[in-house]
User: Fold these one by one.
Assistant:
Number 1:
Amino acid sequence: MDQQILSLIVVGITFAIYIGIAIWARAGSTSEFYVAGKGVHPVANGMATAADWMSAASFISMAGLIAFLGFTGGAYLMGWTGGYVLMALLLAPYLRKFGKFTVPEFIGDRFYSKTARVVAVIALLAMSITYVIGQMRGVGIAFSNILEVPLAVGLVAGMAVVFIYAVLGGMKGITYTQIAQYVIMIFAYTVPAVFIAITLTGNPIPQLGLGSTLQGSDTYLLEALDNTMVELGFTQYTATEGGMSMLNMFLLTLALMIGTAGLPHVIIRFFTVPRVRDARKSAGWALVFIGILYTTAPAVGAMAIWNLVNTVHPGEIGTEEGHLAYEDKPAWMERWEQTGLLEFEDKNEDGVIQYYNDEDEEFAAYAEEEYGWEGSEIVELDRDIMVLANPEIAGLPGWVIALVAAGGIAAALSTAAGLLLAISSAISHDLLKGVFTPKISEKRELLAGRISMAVAILFAGYLGLNPPGFAAEVVALAFGLAAASLFPTLMMGIFMKKMNREGAIAGMLVGLVSTLLYIFLYKGWFFFPETAMLPDNQDGWILGINPSSFGPIGAALNFITAYIVMKMTAPPPKDIQELVESVRVPRAD
Amino acid sequence: MSQDLSREAYWKANLRLLAICLGIWFFVSFVLGILLAAPLNNFYLGGYPLGFWFAQQGSIYTFIVLIFVYAWRMNVLDRKFNVDEE
């Protein structure tokens, strides 16, 4: 059967499943709409959280990112998993005990201030909207790349499906759909990885295969990869030098950890379990399900770069049989060339391909002298193709390729739905019910929630179709804001009984503004690149700190400001201090 | 000597447990996976240089175990201090 039709059928089946679940899990009350009636089993919630959390970026981009970073790619792996430790230990059980619907609601109640609640809503909307644009874009790209339909068609189909199950089912519909999406996603990710691990190392478990010897040889895969990379002028794959500096790896890991723990659409997942102890355990289950993908990703990345290099350089480098001739290119290379994500140029017109590190001047000079190379001939290599092309590189059957398409779409849809719920609950519950029209009936609030969800979907879809030029940078912004504004404020709300309204608001504002300023300095005011004040590179960064890694510093500024302001102003009223005490123990009073 | 089973004592016990868990969290990722990764890379776990393994595999496994151990120890504390949910 034609690959495109097969892919469309598989994606169509998954869509039918999502809609079926939506009809079965309709939400009837605000509690069901916002927190699935607080009745989700911790294991099921862990699985839904994993799907909620793992976005198109985790599914499609992360392995490719690691493939080209090598060792320092660990910052993403540790950062995006270590945040769950912070969430499970420092936030989830206490927020669950508090027992309300949204993150701004906790901040507003704990700091007895509508202003604090509104500031939290602004921070939440800023990060959730920037984040959701990338997801809608991911849905569109998965459709247009793999199914070969126009971006707009794919995007509208994706929006329609999310619309049905999120607007109808709220958190309840989203949760059960996300469980199905997790299963599809993890299956689509691990099946090609298992096949590739078997082909290369004979070990079917990718996590073990990466540490094994190559099939029919005594050499370890990683050792062989290190040697090959050095022969091509790169640094060793597993070595700590190359990639980013140690300071930036340290800060980026910390930024991603704190940012993950402060993302409201993930935090609200822990409001949906029945008890406090379920919230603790559920975070563990979430990390188990996330860990399955995140420990497979390093194997996918390393094996993909190994396969790529060995396809281009099948033999000893510099010899005639050591290079792939242009006319012998495998079919998958030809196919990806058509998308423009992979591009070759025969610079020295020798009819064969050379791929090496021509940015290293010493090695480039040596290669020209020794081999007559005039520059790396893979001139465009989009890292996102690493996961998508994987099944083709490994020569897997058509249904696996179709499954990867469905998996990518599932990853993007599940995250988009979680974000849309966070956005709609912030508007209907925090702004309408909490601030503007406190007397609104439950029925009207539910309707308002559905309408704001629908508007958010249309808005996100529009931006996904006409993305502002800064789509890639804004993800760093979303994490920076979560790390610098929400996480410290939530933590102080629980762990510092004496933290007061003034301190919390001042801290949040300083965290928000300092992070925004630092990012705008390098990326341009409101992301207009021409307005950047300082060069965005190692030399231009203050103390060598990358804007993506600024989160922990913004968080530290938040803590310090809050502490100083707290010392100068009146302590919180007695009933608030009692609220903190009751949040700290699982048993209801 | 009778044990102090007050809420303050419960909170102190919780903070102590948190400090231990977060210490381990920091040690496997930031110390073993980043700061000491270069010297650790001279040792091997199968084909994995050890620093590389901590940065891309080991820390994730540790995080998972850590959350479950914390959840289990907290359940024990909850019962001991009689603050568990019935």
Number 2:
Amino acid sequence: MNHIPAHLQIQDLDVRYDNNPRLALDNVSFSVPEGTRVAIVGPNGAGKSTLFKAIVGLLPRERGSISIHNGAANTLQECVAYVPQREQVDWRFPVNVQDVVMMGRYGSLGWFKRPAKKDRLAVQHALAQMNIENLARASIGELSGGQQQRVFLARALAQDPRILLMDEPFTGVDVTTQEATLNLLDQLGAQGVTLMVSTHDLNLAASRFERVLLLNRRLVAYGAPAQVLTTDNLLRAFGAHAMFVEGKMIVDDCCPGDEHLLLGESPALETLER
Amino acid sequence: MIQIFTEPLAYGFMQRGMLAAVMVGILCAVVGCYVVLRGMAYLGDAISHAILPGVAIAYVLKGDILVGALVAAILVALAIGFFTQRGNIKEDTAIGILFAATLSLGIAIISTIKTYALDLTHILFGNVLGASDTDLVLIAILSVIVLVTLLALYKELLVVSFDPVLAATLRLPTNLLINILLILIALAVVISLQTVGVGLVAAMLVTPAATANLLTRRLPTMMLIAGMLGALASIIGLYLSYYLNIASGAVIVLTTTVFFFIAYVFAPARGIFWNLRHRPPHAAPTR
């Protein structure tokens, strides 16, 4: 593994919201080799979304550095795609699904250029991959929540990213969308795309990802799922939100809208049992 | 019959007025699409009133009134952008303060000028029939500049308006783009001074675009329809003004308003009439 250059390297990262005395991210350092699938796990307010926003440049860094392919984070931006937890777009805006997915091509197109045939093909391909070709001409306001998410995943695909960041893609979506998202992760993983996905689902983190990053403002643990998702680490990350029920660990995020998360009887999680 | 349409055009001032009104109608409506979609109607109104001190100062200094208006409009557009982008004052508060301040300054300066009364009504309500050849050339040049800029920055303005998060991810200079948009609005406002005047510019920006928004669900089509409605309202308005002897700016704005209500009632899928006839048995709201 050592000979592969770090695709994404985060060094001593501090992020603060406005004048909040508490750092949102405190001295976080880690590196992700090219093509690795990383699940980011942590309680609410752990800074998972903050980490993503800092990587794409939506939030300023107070300290530390982010480098992609050994370049500064702002030099290779078109190769990073980001799908936020909830899209902050105006759903009444007069654009259709095709228009939204085409926006994924704008980064590589550059100023003043119009989309060419190559870009239209990329859009068609992305729509097909997310299985929403039939919605190409639907306006975005008409879509269901799951369909909306698939549109934004298609847009991320159309960006042809080397690094894809997804914030909670499995929270509050229908089974079809969840399945489509998982298929997409597998496909992109096979293509060598680096994936960072935040999730509350420890099972999923253990079974579908090569590495888990356990975060609670500071980096608690980072490595292979079996090494990271130990009782000790989870207690350190989740604190009072971790409970044991009948020998299994439950992490409970009590905030409205979040599901209660139960660790099932997955073989990968034997380490969690007492 | 055809005489009804040709007779007014026998006069040079009507020909020039018609050209000016059509150009302004198209330009305002196309720029207005962004005003409507970004919820900047109040801002359009503020910029139009901010013109007043510029015009007054230009008059006192015996300079060109349009230049004075242009400088004032761009300054106030950028001031609003500056206050909002620093993030500690809300946009509507910033607009409210600057709107009243510039209007007061304009009135204060004008009240010191004794001979101003007649020109002032032209500034406030427009005088499309007084458009000179120079005015026409100026309107044409500014229209081309604004429309070409809108076309050239179509992708970027679309992303910045629709999805600020993507705009930031793509490292688009969001503040610069919004400032450019503010300047384009300011330019549109200044050239409509001639046709509808300060008091009614906001209507030319908002009403045709809002009407088009009821009739289509894609931005390019919305701009096209808005532009056509703006032009059509200007033509109809001017004929009505000629035959009924009503102030032209007012009739033009009233015509766009009639268009809006027709669309509001009869628009496919979104009008009141359609909803009455095609009400679904179980209204399923989308998220």
